[in-house]
Amino acid sequence: MMKRADIRAFLEAISGGNANPRTELDYATPYQLLVAVVLSAQATDVSVNRVTRTLFADAPTPQAMVALGEAAIAQRIKSIGLWQAKAKNVAMLSHLLLERHGGEVPGDRAALEALPGVGRKTANVVLNEVFGQPAMAVDTHIFRLGNRTGLAPGSTPRAVEDALLKRIPKDMLKPAHLWLILHGRYVCKARTPECWRCPGAAYCTYGEKTIKA
DNA sequence: ATCCCGAGGG
DNA sequence: CCCTCTGGAT
């Protein structure tokens, strides 16, 4: 019998009844969240968290970040990949926030994506987590989930995003973002998915196709 | 060898 | 669609 991907039931199952998930990537201010996500490209959450701890201790605001300067920023993030481009982006992005937005993180997509280092995914993280807008940031974890669960099989990140937006109840959209990322990070892992401890297995066919019991 | 809360460019 | 940028973890 074919299981049907029920996104609501799936989300309720993997959420563990936690309506307000908080993670190590729960930053103090919208600015720090934005910078952290810009730094997160092709880097693990743990490594990003490690460098942002020292970076934000010295430069918690865009003013302080501009004062710190690109070279000093680079020196503090060299343990993660792509640090050259990221240091340049964070310095310029901070400058532009001051110049264009009074030092505040803008709440509209066009303004966000006009910042260096900020693409659709990063803009969606800010729109979802900071402004509570109907946006889903499809990172590598959520993209993988979208394909494995049959929500948007063999599709593009944009198609996964649209499918999630269409099918996730509005009041679940914000917590769902973190639920899905954490689930992809720790359970529905890229190399060794642990279907046997997935609470959403009843709404997913991936385990049946890959793990023959 | 593969992957990580991607972006930018061809 | 493709490619490059990059270090650390597994």
UniProtKB/TrEMBL annotation:
SUPFAM superfamilies in UniProt: DNA-glycosylase
Classification via SMART domains: ENDO3c
CDD domains from the UniProt entry: ENDO3c
Cofactor(s) needed by this chain: [4Fe-4S] cluster
HhH-GPD domain: residues covered: 39-186
An annotated Gene Ontology molecular function: endonuclease activity
Record-given protein name: Endonuclease III
Keywords from the named record: 4Fe-4S, DNA damage, DNA repair, DNA-binding, Endonuclease, Glycosidase, Hydrolase, Iron, Iron-sulfur, Lyase, Metal-binding, Nuclease
Function per UniProt: DNA repair enzyme that has both DNA N-glycosylase activity and AP-lyase activity. The DNA N-glycosylase activity releases various damaged pyrimidines from DNA by cleaving the N-glycosidic bond, leaving an AP (apurinic/apyrimidinic) site. The AP-lyase activity cleaves the phosphodiester bond 3' to the AP site by a beta-elimination, leaving a 3'-terminal unsaturated sugar and a product with a terminal 5'-phosphate.
Residues reported in the UniProt entry to bind [4Fe-4S] cluster: C188, C195, C198, C204
Catalytic activity from the UniProt record: 2'-deoxyribonucleotide-(2'-deoxyribose 5'-phosphate)-2'-deoxyribonucleotide-DNA = a 3'-end 2'-deoxyribonucleotide-(2,3-dehydro-2,3-deoxyribose 5'-phosphate)-DNA + a 5'-end 5'-phospho-2'-deoxyribonucleoside-DNA + H(+)
Annotated EC: 4.2.99.18
Cofactor note: Binds 1 [4Fe-4S] cluster.
UniProt cross-references to Gene3D superfamilies, sorted A to Z: Helix-hairpin-Helix base-excision DNA repair enzymes (C-terminal) (1.10.1670.10), Hypothetical protein, domain 2 (1.10.340.30)
Entry similarity comment: Belongs to the Nth/MutY family.
